[in-house]
Each structure stands twice: as structure tokens, then as C-alpha cells.
Amino acid sequence: MIDAIDFSLVNWSRGQFALTAFYHWFFVPLTLGITFIIAIMETIYVRTGDEGWKKITKFWMTLFGINFAIGIATGLIMEFEFGTNWSNYSWFVGDIFGAPLAIEGIMAFFLESTFIAVMFFGWNKVSKKFHLLSTWLVATGASLSALWILVANAWMQYPVGMQFNPDTARNEMVSFWDILLSPVAVNKFLHTISSGYILASIFVIGVSAWFLLQKRNIMFARRSIVVAAIFGFLSSLHIIATGDGSARQLAKIQPMKLAAMEGLYKGYEGVGLVVIGVLAPREEYPGINDGKDFYLRIEIPKLLSYMSFGSSNAFVPGILDLVDGNSERGILSASEKIERGKYARDVLRELKEAKEKGDMMRYETLKAKFTDENFKDEYFRYFGYGYIDDPGRLIPNVPLSFYSFRLMVSLGFYFLLFFILTLILVYTRTLEKRKWFQLLALFTIPLAYLATMLGWTVAEMGRQPWVIQDLMPTFSAVSNLDAATVQVTFWLFVIIFTALLIAEVKIMTKQIKIGPNEGGN
Amino acid sequence: MFENLSHLALQQYWWVIISLLASFLVFLMFVQGGQTLIYRLGKAPVEKTMLVNALGRKWEFTFTTLVTFGGAFFASFPLFYATSFGGAYWVWMAILFCFIIQAIAYEFRSKPNNFLGQKTYDIFLFINGALGTILIGTAVGTFFNGAMFSVNELNSSQWETSYRGLEAVLNLHNLALGFTVFFLARILGIFYFIRNVEDENIYTRSKKHLLYNTIPFLVFFLAFLIRLLLKDGFAYNPETGEVSMVSFKYFNNLISMPLVFIFLISGVILVLYALYTGLFARSIRGFYFAGTGTVLVVFSLFLIAGLNHTCYYPSIFDLQSSLNIENSSSSHYTLTAMSYVSLIIPFVLAYIVYAWSAINKKKINASEMENEPHLY
Q1: What is the model's pLDDT at position B361?
Q2: What residues pair up with B151 in beta bridges, in sequence order?
Q3: d(Cα B164, Cα B168) in Å, to the nearest integer?
Q4: Which sign, positive or negative, has the C-alpha torsion A299, A302, A308, A314?
Q5: Which of A42, A345, B63, B238 has the smallest count of CB within 10 Å of its CB?
Q6: Residue range(s) defining the domain that contains residue B182
Q7: Is B126 within 8 Å of chain A by CB?
Q8: For residue A288, what pLDDT is reported?
Q9: Residues 6+ apart with CB under 8 A from B219
Q10: What is the C-alpha to C-alpha distance for residues A375 and B179, in angstroms, rounded to an integer?
């Protein structure tokens, strides 16, 4: 990743944000999922009164506590980095983007932080039912927190519910509900939290399998596996459904990202979905080659067209169509969009000059354009293109998007099979006898982390160069800092986050080795 | 309901909410203050364990309030967020580093195989408690003394010194506020220990350290307050937006807003009364008096910083770039939507109080530490 950085301010700032996001997301998915698994376990304890379930609950709660703290720390940094490193962004869309962050704090963080104290310290101080309620509220709070930050992220990918205000030179919210209930936000939330639930399920199964390998705490391990496998299986079905929804949305709102994910340079009708592929190296975009940019390509015919537009013969635009334009399909070229974006920026500049000179008639005329539907549709929607000097900048990293997506989807299907296999072994009561399964479960844990990181890689690298789709390129969102300043904090973050990660892994593995003390077996 | 309010009324409403959040944040910094006293008040291992665990059950409230304070500022006054955070980079980064190391210190410090050793995590807690409070106080001092930035006609901001906010420590008035917050946090931490830890040795040492911290607190606080009331302030003309320096601006703000003046006086009296009870009586209620007093004082200081046509984030590089609640806020629509969200705050406060009291019924003592399965 460092090799790709060109040492400019923008790339260092991107690197720092990516680093923080990477470490943040390393811890958050486990929190999202394991809180629900713990809540289910505690529910069984309260309903049955079986002390074994209480000990199981407490064990996973200990691991959750270790994991939770770093998620909070890195989350704080991410929130403030929007200001410290992306201050131009913060002003341009702060009217919209700040709201979900504030609501996240008021609605979700307090819920989590209040009831987490009851969850850890209230065992002997509050009633069983109040404790159980607290555990469910912590789980709900974690997912609510994810909802608001994912609403914010979805808005960056699909900016809706807003209007540009030329006086303040920023976008302003005009519909809170359009932002909250945007189909992209809903889908992104459901898809992302499902990935957290799956990761946590795999974590619980994998750690439990280690106990089976060690031939200790068998009952504890078996019970944990049952809960996690059912939870993981249902989450896997859900994530596949929401993944399918994502494809349809991408085709409409981020066709370049979809083309990059598929390595599709020249669009055509009835495009197949590449199952396995090896991309051929490409020098910029030298010309048309009918989608034959692969050394190896095994595809399911026409599936991409079907998934994207609901018709097996639908036309799916490729990267070249989106850069060079395709008049036959009504696709504007990047150059045309750049011209229109520059015109929108010129209108804004003229408006500011008219206001400064006190030419209010001209000012009012120009201001009216920003509420004119035709100007918005034909020009302002390409506002961000006005910053682009080279159409080639509009192409995201194709190999990274392509391979990340393939690997993520493959792992997603593998996880579904893994949960089915686990449930079969649970049903046939052969979990303890299958050493190969126990090893498989253990080694599936890092794959779950890999899959979820790949998901974010596809989502965030695939949308470059945009920080807000079509409205603001990443390089114009950055704070007015010098690169050396950001380099210093980047490396400080590397050192501190890595040290904390090492500490967490060491503590976690030690706690696992200690096990659920005397209980659960 | 809120949609019928004027934009200015919504801006004022949100400044009040920001001020409330700030005041609760400073009150909750009793956690930070307590962290700087663990080795002073606790000598035996079990004493330290009691102190750390008393604080450890509350640290997330401070952290969450800080995050919410940031989010609310972003949502309601985004130009401040963009200008200050992107400009005073080093100060904010230093504050963030102080809080990263706190978040993990409690959970990791006593766990076996914790990589850095317990002592390191305790140092993290001390750094967070000392540097975190001083830096936040110093940064807030710039609300009254200004900072070196400019904002252009497209609202793009630029920091005008290479020190990136660190220059704030060169202003003694800012520093006085920084040290006021530091010693106040320690005083609140001591009151919290007196209220929540059942141990005679800790109580005796707490009384002694209350005196040690009261003296510098009063010196720094009075120096800050007297200077604030006597100094020129940054006012703006609501018609033209023009910024000018006005003599005794903050004192005049108090006179113009009698309720705020009453808040400030009441807050000071409550803190002083808490100190009196703490030093000369055996009462556990000092925490409540000092806490309420802190909330009232900080609340009123924020109100005089931003209301009554005052620039809450003045620029001493370019006076006309100064930020006030009118030129830096979100739109009417956003403030309206957020105002509806703010209606859940009383509900949030209610469940916090309920949950807090549910697990704080009894003081922490040595025998609880022996039997508690989840120890920090």
C-alpha cells in the first residue's frame, strides 16, 4: 500500500484515513456480531437458569470487552479526522454529513457506554432481567451506531436529499428522510452489519474449535458453536441477498465502480459475470477490445447484465464507455462532463464576483440557476468533474477492485458452506470427532477478517477519485496542511495502533487459553 | 415546532446545547483528574485497584460525551469544525492521542500478557488525565483569545502559523484556563473517590490532596476569570457581520444576560461550598455540589463566548474571518432536524442516571475487589 503512495499531501491524508479505518474496522465487526451472540446466550441462561450458559456468556463477554476498547479509540480518531485532514470536505458537506455523526453519539454511543457498565459490573447488582436487557441494549447500540455512520458513508456514494447553496458554497440538507432511507444507505447498513455478524460467528466457532482441539471445555465449545452457527448461517443468507441488491444499485449510481469490479473495459449487451479471471496488464485505455482484457476468464453468461438491470440482454457500460462516452447509449464522455462541471464552477465564481461588486441583478440571475432543475441536471450534477484535469483520473484501481471483489464474494459463499457444514456436524453430534473441521474452523477466522476488509476496499477504492460521488474529488477535500505534517501523524498512528493491536492479540489469546475458568464443561 | 423558529433562534438553541455538552464534558473529566491521582491516593495495590475500578466504570461516559460534543459541533457549526480541526492540527491531534491511550488502558492494564506492562498503561492514564485536560482547557481558551486563521469568500479556511495551534500555549490566559481545568478535574476526581470508595486511608489522603489542589485551582481560576471580565472581546454587528473589538465584552455579556450571570455566580458558590465541605466536614456530597457548580460555570462561560453577538472563535490574524454562531452554522433545515433529535437528550440523561445509580448503590471496597470477576 505504501508503494502506491506518491508522497503528496492527498495521498498521505488518504493513507492516514485508510490506516485509521483499517484498524477501526479490524475491531468493530466483532463487536457488532458478538454482542448479539452474547445476548442470545444470556437469554438462554435467563430462560433456563442453567449456570453453564452464564459462564459461557461471561467468557465471550470478556473477549468482547478486550476488543471493544480499541474500536472506541479508533472511532474517535475517524470522527475527528474528517475535520483535521478533510476540512474542505467538512465545510462543503458538513451541513449534511455532521448530522448522522451527532445522532450516532446521542442515540447509539450513550446507549452502549451506559449499559456496557451494567453488562460488566451489574451481575450482582441488578436483577437478571435488567442485566439481560442491558446486554441487548449494548448489542442494539452497537448496530445503531453502525447505522448512522453507514448512512453518512452511503450519502457520500449516493448524495441525495440536498441542495447546493451558492452563498455559502456548500451543500445543504433538504430532506433528512431521503438521506436516512436512501436505498443505498439501507442496503449498505444491512450488508455491512451482516458481515460483522458473520465475522463474529466465525470467531466464536473458530475459538470454540480450538477448545475441541485441546479436548477441554467440550460442552462450552459445543454450545457456543450451536448459537454461532445458526446466527452465522442466517446472516450469510442475508448478506448474499443484500449483495445482490448492491449490484443493481451500483449499475445505476456508480457504473465506473461496477465496471472496475468486473474488469469490464468495453461494455456490451448480455455481459457475463466473471467467476474466475486473470486480468491482462493494460496501458491506460488503448482502445476497444470487446471485453477481452483477461488472460483467463471463466464466466456465467449474461449474469452481470441480469444482476445489474434485471434483463439478461441489458447493456452494461464499460470503463471506456464511461471515459470516452457512448452516444449510441446516451453516455456522456468524461471530457463533456468536465466541461459542464467547469461551467458550473464558473457560474459560482461569477456569482461571488457579482456579489462582491454589488451587482445584485447579475447575482440574483446567477443564483437562480442553482435552483433551476435544468441547470442542476445538465451542469451542477457534474460539479466535481470541474476539478478533474485528466479523464484518466476517473478510473479507479481496476486490478485492486476486481480481485478484492472476487475474493470477497468467494469467501462469502465459502462462509455459507462453512456454516452449513458446522450445522450438519452439530446435528450429527460429530463436532468433537472431526479434527479436520476443528482446524478448518480455526483457520477460517483470518479469512473472515480478510473478507470484511476486502469489502471496504471494493467500496472505497472503487469509488475513487470521488469523496462525494460526482460532486467532490478526494484531492479537493483535503485540509490545507503540508504533507510532512501528515506524515508525522501517519507514522505515529502506525506505531500506536500496531502496538495496541499486538497488545490486544496477546491479551485475547491469553484469555482464550485461560478459558471459561471452571465452568461450561 | 422547531421549523417555526428563526434561523437565529435555532443557532442560539444549538449553541446552548453545545455549551451544555461542554459543561458535562468538563464535569465528567473527574475521570481524567482521578487518573492523575491514582498513585498519590493509593499506596497499597488493593487501594490502587479500588481507585482504578471506581474510575473505570465511568470512563466511557467522558469518552462518549467528547465524541458527541465533536459530532454535535460538526452538525451545528461545521465551519468551526473545518477551520479549527483542520487548522490547529497539532493541538487536536495531541488531544486525540491522549484519548486513544486512555481507551485501552483500563481494559488492558491488569490483563495477563498485556504486552506493554501495567505500569505503561498506568502512565497512559496519567498522560490522558494531565495532558488531556490541560490541552482541552488551553484550546477552549482560544474561544476568548482568538486563533491564527483566515477564511476566504468560499469559506475555505487557512491556518496562518506553522505551529498549527500549538501557539495557543504562548498565551498565558489560555494556559490559565488549561491549568484551571486540570486542577478542577483533580478536585472533582477527589470528590468522586470520597463519594464512591470506602477506604479510610484513601479518604485521609483525599482530604490532604483536596487542599493541595484547591489552592492552585483557585489561583488559576480567579486569574482566568478576572482577566476574562476585564479584557476586550470580539463582537460582531448582526446587521453587517463586521467584527470589532469591544471593551469589557464578556463582562457586558454577563450583565446583558442576567440568567447567565446567576448561573456563573451560583456555579462558583457551589464549587466553593463543595470545597468547604470537603476540607472542613466529613461529607460525601461534595461531588454533587462541585459537579453541579462545574456544569453551571462552564455552561455560562460558553454562553458568554457565543451569545450576545460575540464571536466564539475569533481570528487574531484577520478579525473579519472570526466565526460566530450566525456565519458558521448549518442551515435552518439541518438545525431543525437536529433539534428534533435533541429531544431525546432528556431520555438519554434519564437512563444514564438510572443505570449509574443501579450499579453505584454501594461504595467500592476491598472485599468487592476480591470478588469482582471483571476487574481493571
Answers
A1: 81
A2: B157
A3: 9
A4: positive
A5: B238
A6: 2-371
A7: no
A8: 42
A9: none
A10: 55
Residue A1 — very low, low, confident or very high, per pLDDT cuts 50/70/90? very low
In chain B, % helix, strand, coil (3-state, to 5) comes to 70, 5, 20
Q: What is the pLDDT at residue A292?
A: 58
The three cell numbers of residue A491 are: 507514522
For A:409-448, CB contacts with B below 8 A are none
ipTM above 0.90, yes or no: yes
Q: What are phi and psi of B343, to 5 degrees?
A: -65, -20
Residue B58 within any structural domain of the chain: yes
pTM recorded for the entire structure: 0.92
Task: Band the pLDDT of A5: cuts 50, 70, 90.
Answer: very low
Asked if residues A60 and A205 have their Cβ atoms less than 8 Å apart, the reply is no
Preceding omega of B238 cis (within 30 degrees of 0): no
Specify if B363 maps to a domain: yes
Q: In whole angstroms, what is the distance from residue B286 CA to residue B301 CA?
A: 22
Q: Is A5 left (phi over 0), alpha (psi -120 to 50) or beta?
A: beta
Judging contacts by C-beta atoms under 8 Å, the chain B residues touching residue A174 are 333
Flag whether residue A514 sits within 8 Å of chain B, measured between CB atoms.
yes
Task: State the Cα–Cα distance between residues A106 and A148, nearest whole angstrom.
Answer: 11
Chain B environment of A112 (Cβ under 8 Å): 60, 64
A352 and chain B: CB distance < 8 Å anywhere? yes
Looking at the complex, does the CB of residue A105 fall below 8 Å from at least one CB of chain B?
yes
- The whole-angstrom separation of Cα B3 and Cα A200 is 43
The answer to whether B346 faces chain A, any CB pair under 8 Å, is no
| Residue-level pLDDT at B145 | 97
Q: Is residue A273 within 8 Å of A262, Cβ to Cβ? A: yes
**pLDDT tens digit sequence for B278-290:** 999 888 899 999 9
Residue A7's pLDDT is what?
A: 59
B106 touches chain A (CB under 8 A): yes
CA distance A197 to A238: 10
Neighbouring C-beta atoms of residue B186, cutoff 10 Å: 29
Give the A window 120-139 contacts with B, CB below 8 Å.
Answer: 120-123, 125-126, 130, 134
Average pLDDT over all residues of chain A: 91
Place of cell 506492562: B117
How far apart are the C-alpha atoms of B233 and B255, rounded to whole Å?
14
Q: Is B362 exposed, middle or buried (0-12, 13-18, 19+ CB in 10 A)?
A: exposed
Neighbours of B33 (CB within 10 A): 26
Tell me the shortest Cα–Cα distance from A439 to chain B, in angstroms.
Answer: 25
On whether residue B199 sits in a domain, the answer given is yes
- Distance (Å) from the C-alpha of residue B227 to the closest C-alpha of chain A? 31
Q: How many domains does one find in chain B?
A: 1
Which of the four pLDDT bands, split at 50, 70 and 90, describes residue A517?
Answer: confident
Closest CA to A341 of A228, A460, A473: A473
DSSP label at residue A332? P
Q: How far is A74 from chain B (nearest CA, A)?
A: 7
* Residues forming a β-bridge with A112: none
Question: What would the mean pLDDT of A46-57 be, rounded to a whole number?
Answer: 95
Query: Are A220 and A519 a contacting pair, CB within 8 Å?
Result: yes
B376 in a domain, yes or no? Answer: no
Q: Give A431's contacts (C-beta < 8 A, 6+ positions apart).
A: A212, A221, A222, A225, A422, A425, A437, A438
